Amino acid sequence: MGCSCEKLKLVYKSGSTKDYAALQSLTEAQVYGIKQTWRAIKDHIANVGVITYVSMFENRPELIEIFANFRGRNVGDLQRSGLIRQHALKVMGTIDKCISRIDEPENLAKLLIETGALHRKYNVTPDVIQIIFPHFLNAIKPHIEDYWTEDIATAWKTLFRIMTHYMEIGMTRDSNDVNTINSHFSVT
Fold first, then answer.
1. Average pLDDT of 16-20?
2. The Globin domain covers which part of the protein (predicted)?
């Protein structure tokens, strides 16, 4: 099944003006670029995840305290214990699920809203979710240098804006809203 650009213009209907913020849609070319680069990245998924988190924690060490299993440890301890790798693989698995659902916008949005709701249980705020992206982008770039263009960078940035938007919905809604999410979507 091919990508339908119209399907990627998904809007969550709740009455909040924030939810109606203009989301940049992914073009078919961007979806193709994301899928192609992800294939190359998947061979290095654990390394990309670890580099992403190490970079983030080195730049923002206070974020270590958000993770219950990480509290009171430094980055080196977290690397040696394998805790960063373990969490990074979960995150990379979620990104993999997102990319596999990129042609199914309702399923993609539902996954991200549920992921956001899970993060809310751990008291993660929406602004923290956005912090990881530049570190992820820097971690993937060496693995896809042959494909790297500004268009690819823009495609990944657009995907992450979409991902963070729907995760934020899950982080800011109560569990009843998240459980009944299918009735709140309109594909334009």
1. 38
2. 25-172
Q: Which residues contact 10 (CB under 8 A, 6 or more apart)?
A: 23, 105, 106, 108, 109, 185, 186, 187, 188
- Give CA separation, 17 vs 11, 13, 21, 68, 164, in Å: 11, 10, 7, 33, 16
Q: Which of left, alpha, beta for 125 (phi over 0: left; psi -120 to 50: alpha)?
A: beta
CATH superfamily, domain 25-180, is: Globins (1.10.490.10)
Domain residue ranges in the chain: 25-180
Contacts of 3 (CB under 8 A, 6+ apart): 26, 28, 31, 32, 102, 103
In one-letter notation, the amino acid at residue 171 is: M
**What pTM, to 2 d.p., does this model score?**
0.81
19 vs 27: CA distance, rounded Å: 21
